[in-house]
Amino acid sequence: MIDTVDKTKTSLRRMFFALTLPEAIQQDIVQWRAANFPPEAGRPIVAANMHLTLAFLGEISAAKAQVLQQQAGRISQAGFSVTLDDVGHWPGSGVIWLGCKNPPRGLLQLAQLLRSQAARSGCAQTSLPFHPHVTLLRGATRPVVIPAKTNNQRLCVDHFSLYESVLVRGRTRYTKVQSWPLASGERKPDDV
Ligand code: ATP
Ligand code: MG
């Protein structure tokens, strides 16, 4: 019955775990992007939507979200820093991104843990290796000159968050649902 299908749909939320980018870094990235890519390179992601995805969950029920939130709350890991020193283009998916040449171990561990917990809860995970990145432009399917260098923004990561992705008047917006701290201390500035 159409009614039932619709009800089921509305109780599902599209969710993902991600690292938040501080507003100052989002703004720096916007300026760097404007200086380094022509308008025809692709569709710019708005500053407020810039993030680094750790694990994509898809459309999930409240019950599944609750389980994943409980598991996220039991993660005990130290914070780390991430330097966005790499930039690239995936023409197949039309994405231009900022990433890191040497992702810190803490970042890889956190993503791995969240992704395996998600998979165990039935959230299908891509078989592609995790490539931490911040999407800058979408719809970038044509060849584009990629700048030789980034401006090396450095994120000090002391928490991670669960986000909901919602369509508001045709635009994708993310809402932070919950955040969890990563422990401080014992962190060397360049601990990779
Ligand atoms: P839109 O799809 O509306 O253009 P978006 O891709 O930013 O915008 P979502 O599709 O809701 O929004 O994705 C939320 C986050 O999860 C983004 O970082 C996106 O790259 C990532 N993501 C989406 N689908 C997958 C997937 N199948 N596997 C891994 N990550 C994904
Ligand atoms: Mg998408």
TrEMBL record:
Gene: thpR
Range of residues in the leader sequence: none
Motif residue range(s): HXTX 1: 51-54
Similarity field: Belongs to the 2H phosphoesterase superfamily. ThpR family.
Source organism phylogeny: Bacteria, Pseudomonadati, Pseudomonadota, Gammaproteobacteria, Enterobacterales
Active site (catalytic residues): 51 (proton donor), 133 (proton acceptor)
Top-rank taxon, per record: Bacteria
Keyword annotations of the record: Hydrolase
Cited PANTHER family: RNA 2',3'-CYCLIC PHOSPHODIESTERASE
Protein's name according to its UniProt entry: RNA 2',3'-cyclic phosphodiesterase
Function: Hydrolyzes RNA 2',3'-cyclic phosphodiester to an RNA 2'-phosphomonoester.
InterPro entries, alphabetized: Cyclic_Pdiesterase, RNA_CPDase
Entry EC number(s): 3.1.4.58
Motif (HXTX 2): 133-136
UniProt entry tagged with the keyword Membrane: no
Catalytic activity of the protein: a 3'-end 2',3'-cyclophospho-ribonucleotide-RNA + H2O = a 3'-end 2'-phospho-ribonucleotide-RNA + H(+)
